[in-house]
Amino acid sequence: MVLIRQATLQDLTKVCQIDAAVLGNNSRAQELSSNVTAGECFVACENAEIIGFIVMDHSFFKQCFIPLVIVHPQHQNRGIGADLITYVESVCTKDKLFTSTNLSNQPMQRLCQKLGFIQSGMIENLDPGDPEIIFYKPLQRKSDSDPYKTKSRKL
């Protein structure tokens, strides 16, 4: 069974190890440290071992944005990425969730489509010859639970 929780500083070494295993280097270690410190990183654990992580921040026009979903290569293709994204959907405080991936990253594109994300645009020139595709998903929020929402009624 996979448990997803907010990452702690004690998790940082393992998060960086998994990222380096997928990326091939540790160039994002400082950024990941900032994400963990800010409470923006969530880890997937199986049998008390971290097997993947996701970062959600508000860097994209102050909207909830997923810049990274990383699953250890030995645990890929088991639905862990989908579990991480679904978890982030549940803790996102906005009614929109965005993510992006390179045009060359077909597995992430398929995952986004499977989870109900809609292609929302493309950005050229970030990575030469490999445009970034932006995905968007509207989230259902329980508006009735908002104590500040004004309710109208006919008299």
UniProtKB/TrEMBL annotation:
Pfam families: Acetyltransf_1
Chain ranges of the N-acetyltransferase domain: 2-140
Any GO molecular function: acyltransferase activity, transferring groups other than amino-acyl groups
Xref: Gene3D superfamilies: 3.40.630.30
Keywords of the record: Transferase
Keyword set includes Transferase: yes
Name this polypeptide is given: N-acetyltransferase
Organism: Brevibacillus nitrificans
Species lineage: Bacteria, Bacillati, Bacillota, Bacilli, Bacillales
